[in-house]
Amino acid sequence: MRIKTTVFAVGLLVCALSASAYDYPVSGSSTENYQPVFEKISKGECDNMAAELNELAAKEGVSQEFYLGLCYFENNQQEKGYAAVDRMLAAEEFDEALYLLNREEAKGVNTTELSKYKGFAHYGTGNLSAALEYFLKFKSAGGTDADVHFRTVDIYINTGDLEKAQTELEQGRWKDDRYAYRKGIIELNKGHVQTSLRNFRSVKSAPHTEAYANSNYMIAEICAAQKRFACSEKGYDAMTSTSPNFARQKKEELKNQKKLFGAVIAIGEQYDSNVTSIDEDKVENFSEEESFRTYIFADLKLNFYDVLYDRIETGLLNYKSWNHSVSEYNAQSHKLYAGFIKKYDDFELTLPYISYALTYMDGEKYSDTFTLEAKGAYLMDSWRFYMPLSLTIRSYDTDTPDDYNRDGNGYKGGLGVSKALNKAHMVTLEGNFGAEDTDGKYREVTTSELKLAYTGQIVRDVTLQLDYNTIYYDYKNGGREDRYHSAGATVLYKFLDRHYLNLGYRFNVNDSNDDYNDYKKHVFDLGVSYFY
């Protein structure tokens, strides 16, 4: 039954046709059906009205507990009245419970039990401010109750006051699974995914089944966001005993998240102040050449899930540019790739990542490249430590003297760390050491590299990316040394769902002891991207 507040406000349905003069609420038009129950209430025969309540429920479909609780309260049997209210709350009859409790409060009753149950009733209707008011009143009167304690924590969480939620949670003496679940929720709201997962996973299936089901729901949602769909399905499966229909619905929704096809498509215009990459101030009879180029980029992906790995990402990446002033710098590249990704709560592994790329300049084949990569990452709440490794095998289709032949292998390995700031910003620092073992003795080189990057949401729909990269090249023969620097900034504006406008600038400079390899350039980029 759901006796509405508007019905309660009307009060008695008393008219000439009514056979009852009792001051009890009626829901429905057949007031004579209530008469036997009202007579029992007026006589105080609360424990001897089961037959009348059953008959009333059959005729009017009303809550038996409501009129049983009314009887107890009317006849000063408060303990039994609150027990009836407790059963009504369990049956989610929140409005009816509030009516009985308000009726008692209007009589001047001011007990801890009334405050507790009014708090639960208000919580059930979604009136969190009123619920908090009565829970705090209950506590200030010396009441102690685990459910009141944890519901108070829930209210602070739901209203976004994580500091008060944390304080309230730690002040309670109940450090059981209910505590662990809410600790996980608080940590997740702070952006501490790993700590939240550890808390959720510590919750046992009994005796606190609600905390267990909720914890598994949160685990499933986190795993789904990380595209760990087997982990997500396992979390929903653990909810089946308590919420079978909901678990089944969520598992169906997972199928829509397993996107088989994905794509990133971009088109734009770039201006390059020195496409020849030569410093005209240091090389006589040589002029820097500026250029405009139009480019198109398309990354077409196929994803496969839960086949030994959490995700196998395959695709074909295509790039083509048209240089409007220097045709020999028209470029295009096609790359086939496959990445095998396995994720855990605290660790992420990409092993292997394989790619093969063909590059063309002015319509002629320039190079082909085979790359084998691996990457492992250890995850903490706001820190991420990772190790990238790669092997690259290159072959160039260019006429080059043997001593300058660049065909051969490249090796690179390093360490990186990233730090999340306020959930909307990320700073990354990475260092790498590498070597190129080539056929030409003057092209053998070792490298040391340092990268610094920042990504952050500045305002809604606007993301800023900053990066700085420096590489030191030490050629083993010929005495050549280069110091390369690159700094860039890109602003991404989401103007439609999945559509982005990007505006970028990059400054590159190479400082070499060989004048033919000295250069500096400015590159401006304006484009539009679509993510599917």
Which class do the helix and strand fractions yield?
alpha+beta
Shape estimate: elongated
Rg is 35 Å
Distance between the termini: 48 Å
Strand order of the largest sheet: 1-2-3-4-5-6-7-8-9-10-11-12-13-14
Total helical segments: 15
Biggest beta-sheet profile:
14 strands, antiparallel, barrel
The share of residues in extended strands comes to: 35-45%
User: How many individual β-strands?
Assistant: 14
Order of helices and strands: HHHHHHHHHHHHHHHEEEEEEEEEEEEEE
What is the residue-averaged pLDDT?
Answer: 91
Helical amount? 25-40%
Low-confidence stretches: 1-21
Topology:
Layout: H1 5-10, H2 35-43, H3 50-60, H4 64-74, H5 78-90, H6 94-106, H7 112-125, H8 128-140, H9 146-158, H10 162-171, H11 177-189, H12 193-201, H13 209-225, H14 229-237, H15 244-257, E1 261-272, E2 291-307, E3 309-323, E4 331-343, E5 347-361, E6 364-379, E7 383-396, E8 408-421, E9 425-438, E10 445-459, E11 462-475, E12 481-496, E13 499-512, E14 519-531
Helix pairs in contact: 2-4, 4-5, 4-6, 5-6, 5-7, 6-7, 7-8, 8-9, 9-10, 9-11, 10-11, 11-12, 11-13, 12-13, 13-14, 14-15
Task: Name the features.
single chain; 532 residues; alpha+beta; 14-stranded antiparallel barrel; 15 helices; elongated; disordered N terminus
